[in-house]
Amino acid sequence: MGILERKEKQKLEIRKLILDASMKLFVEEGFSNVTIRRIADLIEYSPTTVYLYFKDKDEIFFSLHDIGFQKMEEMNRDLVTIENPLLRLHKMGENYIEFGLQNPEYYNLMFIQEEPMKKLSELGCDWVKGDSAISRLKATVTECMEKGYLKGDPHLVSLSVWSFVHGLVSLAIRERMEKFIPQKEMILPALKQSLNWMISNIEIDNRSK
Amino acid sequence: MGILERKEKQKLEIRKLILDASMKLFVEEGFSNVTIRRIADLIEYSPTTVYLYFKDKDEIFFSLHDIGFQKMEEMNRDLVTIENPLLRLHKMGENYIEFGLQNPEYYNLMFIQEEPMKKLSELGCDWVKGDSAISRLKATVTECMEKGYLKGDPHLVSLSVWSFVHGLVSLAIRERMEKFIPQKEMILPALKQSLNWMISNIEIDNRSK
Amino acid sequence: MGILERKEKQKLEIRKLILDASMKLFVEEGFSNVTIRRIADLIEYSPTTVYLYFKDKDEIFFSLHDIGFQKMEEMNRDLVTIENPLLRLHKMGENYIEFGLQNPEYYNLMFIQEEPMKKLSELGCDWVKGDSAISRLKATVTECMEKGYLKGDPHLVSLSVWSFVHGLVSLAIRERMEKFIPQKEMILPALKQSLNWMISNIEIDNRSK
Amino acid sequence: MGILERKEKQKLEIRKLILDASMKLFVEEGFSNVTIRRIADLIEYSPTTVYLYFKDKDEIFFSLHDIGFQKMEEMNRDLVTIENPLLRLHKMGENYIEFGLQNPEYYNLMFIQEEPMKKLSELGCDWVKGDSAISRLKATVTECMEKGYLKGDPHLVSLSVWSFVHGLVSLAIRERMEKFIPQKEMILPALKQSLNWMISNIEIDNRSK
DNA sequence: CATGAATGAGAATTCATTCAT
DNA sequence: TATGAATGAATTCTCATTCAT
Fold it and tell me: Is B145 an interface residue toward A (CB < 8 Å)?
């Protein structure tokens, strides 16, 4: 048992090695420059060995997609401490924006690239990672409504809120925002400001009611 | 003269042939499967001939990017007839959504793919097509504010509105909306509904109307 | 007749245009970067037109080979004024060296490249230009012997003298002399010095006779 | 250990296979007709395989250049047995001529083609092989002077002697000697005779004069 | 477990040349 | 005379992947 365990552990370590190397290449050289050979070179194993741990290149990228969600979840871990659900929603949005801007490659795999979703539908699988993130969003939105911070259909509002922040992040990381925000370092504050504006528009203004 | 004209016309026709073939391949087989060879096969010319009409592959894709903007502009041509700027903004958003859903590949080149923007920054050029679309959006938002339909910073609001609809479209065409909208045919109405919700949130309260 | 003449003249002019452009490309970009298309671009005619004046690329290069000999002949034109045949031989050698160093591309076509000679033997032609240059060398060497400046077989001596200067020039222009002559500007004087040494070795020392 | 050795050996064998095939093509079809594909066809491997053994085409040619020098060195191995340095110099010259005439393609890579030197200067490397051959020549010339067979500057004399034999060989293998030596089989003796003449001119003949 | 060897398929691009006009 | 249009035949090189060991 101990032996098996250790073997299992070692296997996971090499998998991690491969994934880290892939991500490194992905970040530094762009998606299309990640080749099995270069991954193998980086970890100082043979290309063939990579195939012992991953069926093919797609599987590597799908694993990175999963890791991306893990990272985002970690970022959101302390959200639970925020009692006010609207504040929590707000912070969730800010985290989302920050995550996307800081990890454009993960973000790409998680929410932009077509391949991961194609892979899933080939296998007849659900987008487990994405769906659970969506669920968390929905739960928070629902809570906001229950507590009177927001109104409307939680489904529609969740979809809209997500689309909004995704729009911000994806336009920014695909360089479509230069006219709006010419300075790179202003992107994060500008997107947060936009989020702010959005939330202030949808929240129920208690004073006037 | 007539001869020159005809020749010019023929030349344009072959260019169009190439662009159409590229788009067809792009739609049917995905960006990375569009090769000069396959384009040439499709139009029944030699690969070399393609190079008579386009400097390289990038130029083809950039032309498609431009054509995308033209198509979108055509779609928006009759917007001018809408007097009320908020209604016009609303319709503009609906058109944007429809265009994106109906032409995901053009949309991809226009607003998602990295390559076109990289090409531009290499050449030190501006994103003319995109910038002018943004300007039109801004103008409408500004008018909305002048006429009391919206308030706030036109810059911020325009950025936000665009991000919102881009988010809707890009999540939808990259298959991330299945949990929210499982039926394909419901996507368009759902996105429009979301847009509707958004606009009703930001528009200035009806008391003043 | 006047018309025919003018036409002939014009034809020659365009031929010259083509040859000049070819040489320019050859000098500036190297042999393998001279393409019909680039020649045509340079003279602002179509590639097809080039074929009206030259059968193929080889013919262009062969013409340049001929022009090279013309240029060298021009350089040697005032040799006739040198009465002393040994001095004349010496100056001939110096001119040869200078010509080669100053016109490495012509020199290449005249004495290094295989293609021109292959072309000739295909056509069953003689190397007229080269042969006549050789004849002039031989005549001078013979005169040197008749006048007591040199001794031995004029055939052998001519061959040897030519080989010697060709060796100097061709090693220099093909960058094999860097160990011997590291500074570019010292090449010409060094080769002349070598020629000097050579001639002083083969000339009959009158004092001792 | 035995296994590793054998593998290493096999690897070297395939390298040799590739080099031999390249040389064969080079000899039979000329420099510009040696392509990776044709090399691969010849050895009945795929083109890709060639790239497993050589980084690119240049590396193949540079290896051949080196092999050329090795072959020439082998030819000169027993020169050390010749005590008299002038005789040794003479034999060295004869070997050089023979090597060049018998291996015109190697000779081409070693002393005529521009590419190898360009590659070297790109890499900032020295022409190690050439320089050491030059050193051996210089040493012999110097010894001749020390022993009273030759006089003058060893540098100048070495340069001149080398240029002389290079001139002979390179004119011959590039077919410029046909006027002087019309019969192919007479080339070798004629060049040796020329070398003979040259050496008898420069040697200090004390007794017989 | 790990790999060296090998490959098939295919990429973008370039060139000399020809033909109908 | 001049050319625009077209092409066949290459070129180098890269990649994901497999198989025998």
Answer: no
The dihedral of CA C168, C169, C172, C176: what is its sign? negative
Return the closest nucleotide (C1') to the Cα of A51: F17
For chain C, give every domain's residue range.
1-54, 57-202
* B54-63 residue pLDDT tens: 999 999 999 9
- Nearest in space to A109 (alpha carbons), one of A72, A162, A155: A72
- CA B157 from chain centre, in angstroms, equals 20
Q: Which CATH class is domain B1-54?
A: mainly alpha
Same fold, C1-54 and C57-202: no
Distance CA B50, CA C36 (A): 20
Comparing C-alpha atoms, which of A45, D134, D178, B132 is closest to residue A15?
A: A45
Q: Look at phi and psi of residue D81 and say left if phi exceeds 0, alpha if psi is from -120 to 50, else beta.
A: alpha
What is the residue-averaged pLDDT of chain C?
A: 93
- D32 Cβ contacts chain F strand, under 7 Å: no
Which pLDDT value is given to residue D206? 53
D and B touching (3 or more beta-carbon pairs closer than 8 Å): no
Nearest Cα to Cα of residue C145 among C132, C133, C161, C169 = C161
- Please name the residue of chain A whose CA is at the shortest distance from the CA of residue B176: A111
Report the C-alpha gap between A125 and A128 in whole angstroms: 8
Residue in the structure block whose two tokens are 């230069």: A178
Selection from D124, D75, D80, D125 nearest residue D101 by Cα: D75
* Predicted pLDDT at B3: 65
pLDDT at A10 (0 to 100): 83
Inter-residue contact B87 to B131 (CB < 8 Å) = no
- Whole-structure pTM over 0.90, yes or no? no
How far CA D104 is from CA of A201, D74, D110, D169, in Å, comes to 84, 17, 10, 9
Residue-level pLDDT at B142: 98
Fold of D57-202: Tetracycline Repressor; domain 2 (1.10.357)
Furthest-apart CA pair in chain B: how many Å?
A: 67
**pLDDT > 90 fraction of chain B, expressed in percent and rounded:** 86
Q: C133: nearest CA in chain D?
A: D179
